[in-house]
Amino acid sequence: MEAKEVVLPEFAVVGLKIEGNLEEFNAGLAKDTYHSLKSKMNEIPNRKNEKVIMIQIYPMKPGFDPVKDRFTQIMGYEVTDESVVPEGMIRHSIPESKYATCTHKGLEADIGQTYDSLYGEWIRSRGSEPKGYDFEVWDERYQPESEQNEIDMFVALR
Question: Which CATH code is given to the segment(s) 4-157?
Answer without folding.
Answer: 3.20.80.10
